[in-house]
Amino acid sequence: MRPESSARWVRMFAMAALPLWLVGCMSAGINEKTVREANLNPPRQPEQSLPALPVVGSADYRTGPLDVLSVDVFQQPDLSREVKVSADGQVALPLVGRIPVSGRTMAELEEAIKIRLGERFLESPQVAVTVKEYLSQRVTLEGAVSQPGVYPLTARMSLLQMIATAGGLGDLANPGACVVYRYVDGKRYGAAFDIREVRAGRMVDPEILGGDVVIVDYSGARANYRDFLSLYPVFSVFLRGY
Predict the structure, then answer these.
(1) pLDDT tens across 45-99, in order?
(2) Same-domain check for residues 42 and 142
């Protein structure tokens, strides 16, 4: 193929690919109209629903390995302290010794510690247990986010907040294709979300729970555009002319 024919072909491809790439870049914006619509119409739920689980900070939350607990014994500062749950799900406390805590709620832990202390050491002890850090709860972010990886869930977080934790959407992200997977009793459930709709307030911003997997898809048109630029540097020369 002659050089002038090759250049003409690359130029025609650029003109055809540019609209597709621009469409891939478009996203729903937030303005007065979208805010007004969101106030009048509650955000819609996704077509698929995710099963509920005890969330971080709730009364029925169950501790796990690496969580940091604050144990307060009323009027006994020497017995009060912060402890980290070991990998085998136990903590060591003064006078109590090692006690299994993984899988227990705060109320169950308080009762177990009260029983241990009341057996030989204190009369009617009062114990309060809270979680300081939820390091056992981890969320996996994959796909087209700036910093994919596994992140600890240290507080209650929504989908948008988790994506922000991972540095936001990547340059090649498709904001209309985000899936959240959740495992319950050995079964996997999934729900799809459009990040543009969530940002605009037209779709719910779901709470992300420990163990969830969030995957943001890549935009095929934009990924193909990037690959083409790497293979055919002359393409950018023609693109700058329009």
Answers:
(1) 665 556 555 566 677 888 989 899 999 999 999 999 999 999 999 999 999 999 9
(2) yes
CATH of the domain at 98: 3.30.1950.10
CATH code (residue 142)? 3.10.560.10
Query: In whole angstroms, what separates CA 86 from the centre of its chain?
Result: 24
d(CA 230, CA 225): 9
Identity of the residue numbered 196: R
pTM of the model: 0.60
Same domain, 86 and 194: no
Please determine, for residue 27, whether its predicted confidence score (pLDDT) is greater than 70: no
Structural contact between residues 44 and 202, judged by C-beta atoms closer than 8 angstroms:
yes
Angle subtended at Cα 154 by Cα 191 and Cα 86, rounded to the nearest 5 degrees: 110
